[in-house]
Amino acid sequence: MAQTDIVPYTNRRIRRKGEALPKSTDVAVLVEQMRKAMKIHDGIGIAAPQIGEAVRVFIIEKKLFPGADLPSDVFINPKILRKGFKREISEEGCLSVPNVFGQVSRSLKITIEAFDQNWKRFRLSTQELLARVLQHELDHLDGTLFIDKADADTLHEVVYDKEGKPTLRPWTQKSKIQNPNDKTNSNF
Ligand SMILES: [Zn+2]
User: Which residues bind Fe cation (predicted)?
Assistant: First the structure.
């Protein structure tokens, strides 16, 4: 597995709970790998377990949130301090579940605390898409995927025909994992 390969949902490693990192651990190499993987696979964010590292680190694509005034795009040992009562349902996808999308209910507003790459503690209160991305990435650190939380009736796969024209078809996690031809099953 190349360092920038993404661990798919069919690989049990994606389900491991990430360990908290001891303070002052050098994360430069890990973060660099995650940045590369996020760029190659065009992600909004990526969590360490998605590149096979079961530790509590995720990063987000800062460029996509120009108005957010982010203290850091690296989140080490993150914790949600507050979750708003109000929830919002919106579509999500995931690099570990390629071409699959579904509607997930998340808190509209959250306050998160984490350490940046230099182990400086920071807090961020945010809402809407950024709050959703942070909750999605945090779930990865506990081995949870959006397909576990999505409304099952809304899960769908985008399939491309020979001309590259996309069509949508319903998707279930179970049918995929039982597919004996899915080579990713043996990739743990
Ligand atoms: Zn994901």
Answer: 94, 136, 140
